Protein backbone atom coordinates (compact mmCIF):
# COMPACT_ATOMS: atom_id res chain seq x y z
CA UNK A 1 0.00 0.00 0.00
CA UNK A 2 1.22 3.50 -0.79
CA UNK A 3 -0.32 6.88 0.03
CA UNK A 4 1.12 10.22 -0.96
CA UNK A 5 0.02 13.83 -0.66
CA UNK A 6 1.24 16.97 -2.40
CA UNK A 7 1.72 19.96 -0.10
CA UNK A 8 3.01 23.51 -0.55
CA UNK A 9 4.08 25.89 2.19
CA UNK A 10 1.93 28.98 2.56
CA UNK A 11 4.92 31.32 2.97
CA UNK A 12 6.55 30.48 -0.38
CA UNK A 13 5.49 30.96 -4.03
CA UNK A 14 4.37 27.83 -5.88
CA UNK A 15 7.28 25.97 -7.56
CA UNK A 16 6.65 27.50 -11.00
CA UNK A 17 7.14 31.01 -9.59
CA UNK A 18 10.07 30.35 -7.24
CA UNK A 19 13.51 31.90 -7.59
CA UNK A 20 16.69 29.94 -6.96
CA UNK A 21 16.99 31.72 -3.61
CA UNK A 22 13.41 30.67 -2.70
CA UNK A 23 14.20 27.03 -3.45
CA UNK A 24 17.36 27.04 -1.34
CA UNK A 25 15.59 28.83 1.53
CA UNK A 26 12.72 26.33 1.49
CA UNK A 27 15.12 23.38 1.62
CA UNK A 28 16.98 24.96 4.55
CA UNK A 29 13.67 25.44 6.36
CA UNK A 30 12.75 21.82 5.72
CA UNK A 31 16.13 20.65 7.01
CA UNK A 32 15.15 21.95 10.45
CA UNK A 33 11.96 19.86 10.31
CA UNK A 34 13.85 16.77 9.15
CA UNK A 35 16.37 17.07 11.97
CA UNK A 36 13.46 16.80 14.40
CA UNK A 37 12.20 13.71 12.56
CA UNK A 38 15.67 12.14 12.52
CA UNK A 39 15.92 12.65 16.28
CA UNK A 40 12.58 10.85 16.79
CA UNK A 41 12.96 7.07 17.16
CA UNK A 42 9.65 6.58 15.33
CA UNK A 43 11.23 8.03 12.17
CA UNK A 44 15.05 8.33 12.29
CA UNK A 45 16.54 8.16 8.81
CA UNK A 46 18.44 10.68 6.71
CA UNK A 47 18.03 13.65 4.37
CA UNK A 48 19.68 13.42 0.93
CA UNK A 49 20.22 16.78 -0.79
CA UNK A 50 20.90 17.44 -4.47
CA UNK A 51 21.99 21.02 -3.75
CA UNK A 52 25.75 21.27 -4.40
CA UNK A 53 28.09 22.25 -1.60
CA UNK A 54 26.04 21.67 1.54
CA UNK A 55 26.76 19.02 4.24
CA UNK A 56 23.75 16.91 3.20
CA UNK A 57 24.76 16.80 -0.52
CA UNK A 58 25.10 13.40 -2.19
CA UNK A 59 27.14 12.19 -5.17
CA UNK A 60 25.74 11.37 -8.60
CA UNK A 61 26.14 7.65 -7.92
CA UNK A 62 24.20 7.94 -4.64
CA UNK A 63 21.49 9.90 -6.45
CA UNK A 64 21.18 7.29 -9.21
CA UNK A 65 21.00 4.51 -6.63
CA UNK A 66 18.14 6.27 -4.80
CA UNK A 67 16.27 6.78 -8.10
CA UNK A 68 16.70 3.12 -8.96
CA UNK A 69 15.31 2.18 -5.53
CA UNK A 70 12.28 4.48 -6.17
CA UNK A 71 13.16 6.62 -3.16
CA UNK A 72 14.19 9.76 -5.08
CA UNK A 73 12.54 11.53 -8.03
CA UNK A 74 14.10 11.60 -11.49
CA UNK A 75 15.95 14.51 -13.11
CA UNK A 76 13.24 17.16 -13.50
CA UNK A 77 15.26 19.14 -16.04
CA UNK A 78 14.60 16.34 -18.54
CA UNK A 79 10.80 16.86 -18.36
CA UNK A 80 9.64 19.43 -20.98
CA UNK A 81 6.29 20.00 -19.23
CA UNK A 82 7.88 20.82 -15.88
CA UNK A 83 10.42 22.98 -17.69
CA UNK A 84 7.78 24.98 -19.58
CA UNK A 85 5.90 25.60 -16.31
CA UNK A 86 9.06 26.82 -14.58
CA UNK A 87 8.78 24.03 -12.02
CA UNK A 88 12.12 22.42 -12.90
CA UNK A 89 14.04 25.73 -13.01
CA UNK A 90 17.33 25.97 -11.10
CA UNK A 91 17.75 22.19 -11.03
CA UNK A 92 19.15 20.66 -8.81
CA UNK A 93 19.16 23.47 -6.24
CA UNK A 94 16.68 23.14 -3.38
CA UNK A 95 15.91 19.51 -4.24
CA UNK A 96 16.29 16.41 -2.12
CA UNK A 97 14.45 13.74 -0.15
CA UNK A 98 14.08 12.57 3.41
CA UNK A 99 13.87 8.80 3.98
CA UNK A 100 12.92 7.30 7.35
CA UNK A 101 14.97 4.54 8.94
CA UNK A 102 12.48 1.84 7.88
CA UNK A 103 12.09 3.40 4.41
CA UNK A 104 8.33 3.45 4.91
CA UNK A 105 8.09 7.26 5.09
CA UNK A 106 9.54 9.57 2.42
CA UNK A 107 9.36 13.31 1.77
CA UNK A 108 10.44 14.73 -1.59
CA UNK A 109 11.52 18.37 -1.47
CA UNK A 110 11.32 20.63 -4.53
CA UNK A 111 9.63 18.32 -7.02
CA UNK A 112 6.27 19.23 -8.65
CA UNK A 113 5.11 20.64 -5.29
CA UNK A 114 7.23 21.94 -2.44
CA UNK A 115 6.66 18.61 -0.68
CA UNK A 116 5.50 15.16 -1.70
CA UNK A 117 4.86 13.23 1.51
CA UNK A 118 4.59 9.46 1.12
CA UNK A 119 3.96 6.44 3.33
CA UNK A 120 4.30 2.83 2.22
CA UNK A 121 3.61 -0.46 3.96
CA UNK A 122 3.15 -4.08 3.03
CA UNK A 123 -0.03 -5.53 4.50
CA UNK A 124 -3.79 -5.61 4.31
CA UNK A 125 -4.89 -3.09 6.98
CA UNK A 126 -5.59 0.13 5.05
CA UNK A 127 -5.84 2.33 8.14
CA UNK A 128 -2.26 1.60 9.19
CA UNK A 129 -0.67 3.48 6.30
CA UNK A 130 -3.25 6.31 6.36
CA UNK A 131 -2.80 6.81 10.12
CA UNK A 132 0.98 6.99 9.75
CA UNK A 133 0.66 9.49 6.91
CA UNK A 134 -1.66 11.70 8.96
CA UNK A 135 0.75 11.67 11.91
CA UNK A 136 3.73 12.36 9.63
CA UNK A 137 1.98 15.28 7.88
CA UNK A 138 1.18 16.82 11.26
CA UNK A 139 4.83 16.51 12.34
CA UNK A 140 6.10 18.02 9.07
CA UNK A 141 3.64 20.94 9.16
CA UNK A 142 4.37 21.65 12.83
CA UNK A 143 8.10 21.91 12.09
CA UNK A 144 8.12 23.42 8.59
CA UNK A 145 5.30 25.95 8.41
CA UNK A 146 1.60 26.04 7.48
CA UNK A 147 0.50 24.23 4.32
CA UNK A 148 -1.24 26.32 1.64
CA UNK A 149 -4.98 25.61 1.82
CA UNK A 150 -8.09 27.13 0.26
CA UNK A 151 -11.51 26.97 1.89
CA UNK A 152 -13.01 26.45 -1.58
CA UNK A 153 -10.48 24.19 -3.30
CA UNK A 154 -8.66 22.36 -0.53
CA UNK A 155 -4.88 21.96 -0.53
CA UNK A 156 -3.23 24.19 -3.14
CA UNK A 157 -1.07 22.24 -5.60
CA UNK A 158 0.89 22.95 -8.79
CA UNK A 159 -1.28 20.60 -10.85
CA UNK A 160 -5.04 21.35 -10.75
CA UNK A 161 -5.81 17.61 -10.82
CA UNK A 162 -4.33 17.31 -7.32
CA UNK A 163 -6.45 20.08 -5.76
CA UNK A 164 -8.66 18.98 -2.87
CA UNK A 165 -7.04 16.31 -0.73
CA UNK A 166 -3.86 16.40 -2.84
CA UNK A 167 -3.84 12.68 -2.10
CA UNK A 168 -3.20 9.61 -4.19
CA UNK A 169 -3.65 6.27 -2.49
CA UNK A 170 -2.80 3.06 -4.30
CA UNK A 171 -2.24 -0.58 -3.63
CA UNK A 172 -0.93 -3.54 -5.58
CA UNK A 173 -3.21 -6.54 -5.85
CA UNK A 174 -2.59 -9.86 -7.57
CA UNK A 175 -5.50 -10.81 -9.85
CA UNK A 176 -4.13 -13.61 -12.06
CA UNK A 177 -7.58 -14.98 -12.99
CA UNK A 178 -9.26 -11.66 -13.78
CA UNK A 179 -6.30 -10.62 -15.92
CA UNK A 180 -5.78 -13.98 -17.64
CA UNK A 181 -6.62 -12.38 -21.01
CA UNK A 182 -3.64 -10.03 -20.60
CA UNK A 183 -5.78 -6.94 -19.94
CA UNK A 184 -7.23 -5.16 -16.93
CA UNK A 185 -10.69 -4.87 -18.58
CA UNK A 186 -12.52 -7.13 -16.10
CA UNK A 187 -10.91 -5.43 -13.10
CA UNK A 188 -11.83 -2.03 -14.54
CA UNK A 189 -15.47 -3.11 -14.90
CA UNK A 190 -15.55 -3.84 -11.16
CA UNK A 191 -13.68 -0.68 -10.12
CA UNK A 192 -15.15 2.04 -12.38
CA UNK A 193 -18.52 2.34 -10.55
CA UNK A 194 -16.55 2.89 -7.31
CA UNK A 195 -14.47 5.71 -8.85
CA UNK A 196 -11.31 3.60 -8.87
CA UNK A 197 -8.65 3.39 -11.58
CA UNK A 198 -6.83 0.20 -12.56
CA UNK A 199 -3.35 0.49 -14.03
CA UNK A 200 -0.22 -1.57 -14.58
CA UNK A 201 1.99 -2.39 -11.61
CA UNK A 202 4.37 0.44 -12.53
CA UNK A 203 1.61 3.06 -12.77
CA UNK A 204 0.04 4.81 -15.75
CA UNK A 205 0.86 3.42 -19.22
CA UNK A 206 2.68 0.37 -17.80
CA UNK A 207 1.77 -3.29 -18.34
CA UNK A 208 0.12 -5.64 -15.86
CA UNK A 209 2.60 -7.68 -13.84
CA UNK A 210 3.39 -11.16 -15.14
CA UNK A 211 1.69 -12.55 -12.02
CA UNK A 212 -1.45 -10.47 -12.62
CA UNK A 213 -0.44 -7.61 -10.30
CA UNK A 214 -2.37 -4.37 -10.90
CA UNK A 215 -2.32 -0.94 -9.28
CA UNK A 216 -5.66 0.20 -7.80
CA UNK A 217 -6.27 3.85 -6.88
CA UNK A 218 -9.12 6.39 -6.61
CA UNK A 219 -9.64 8.56 -9.72
CA UNK A 220 -10.88 11.67 -7.90
CA UNK A 221 -8.85 14.15 -5.83
CA UNK A 222 -11.33 17.06 -5.83
CA UNK A 223 -14.70 16.99 -4.04
CA UNK A 224 -13.78 13.90 -2.07
CA UNK A 225 -12.81 13.38 1.57
CA UNK A 226 -9.87 11.28 2.73
CA UNK A 227 -12.30 8.91 4.49
CA UNK A 228 -14.15 8.40 1.18
CA UNK A 229 -10.87 7.35 -0.45
CA UNK A 230 -10.26 4.69 2.20
CA UNK A 231 -13.84 3.39 1.92
CA UNK A 232 -13.69 3.22 -1.89
CA UNK A 233 -10.42 1.28 -1.76
CA UNK A 234 -11.84 -1.12 0.82
CA UNK A 235 -14.95 -1.79 -1.28
CA UNK A 236 -12.83 -2.17 -4.41
CA UNK A 237 -10.53 -4.74 -2.81
CA UNK A 238 -13.47 -6.69 -1.42
CA UNK A 239 -15.30 -6.85 -4.77
CA UNK A 240 -12.16 -7.59 -6.79
CA UNK A 241 -11.15 -10.49 -4.55
CA UNK A 242 -14.70 -11.89 -4.77
CA UNK A 243 -14.63 -11.70 -8.60
CA UNK A 244 -11.12 -13.14 -8.68
CA UNK A 245 -12.35 -16.16 -6.71
CA UNK A 246 -15.26 -16.69 -9.14
CA UNK A 247 -13.18 -16.27 -12.33
CA UNK A 248 -11.81 -19.35 -14.14
CA UNK A 249 -8.35 -20.34 -12.92
CA UNK A 250 -5.51 -18.99 -15.04
CA UNK A 251 -3.83 -21.79 -17.00
Helix-strand layout with pairing:
Elements lengths: L1 E6 L12 H19 L7 E4 L10 H9 L11 H5 L11 E4 L5 E5 L5 E6 L5 H19 L4 E2 L3 E2 L11 E8 L10 H7 L4 E5 L12 E6 L7 H21 L5
Antiparallel strand pairs: 1-5, 1-8, 2-3, 3-4, 4-5, 6-7, 8-10, 9-10
User: What quaternary form is this?
Assistant: single chain
> What's the SSE pattern?
EHEHHEEEHEEEHEEH
Structural class call reads alpha+beta
Shape: globular
Helix content: 25-40%
Biggest pleated sheet:
8 strands, antiparallel
Description:
- The chain is an alpha+beta fold.
- It is 32% helix and 19% strand.
- A hairpin with a 3-residue loop joins β6 and β7.
- The chain starts with a strand and ends in a 5-residue tail after the last helix.
- The mean pLDDT is 90.
Quick structural gist:
The protein is an alpha+beta fold.
Question: Key features?
Answer:
single chain; 251 residues; alpha+beta; 8-stranded antiparallel sheet; 6 helices; 32% helix
Amino acid sequence: MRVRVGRNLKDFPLPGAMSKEDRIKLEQQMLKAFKNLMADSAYGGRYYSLTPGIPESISDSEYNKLVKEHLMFKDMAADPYLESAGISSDWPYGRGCYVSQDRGFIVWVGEEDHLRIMCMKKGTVLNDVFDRLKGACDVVEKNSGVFAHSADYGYVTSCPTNLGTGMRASLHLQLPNLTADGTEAKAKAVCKPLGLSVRGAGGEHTPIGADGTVDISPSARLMIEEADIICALYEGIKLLLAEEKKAPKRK
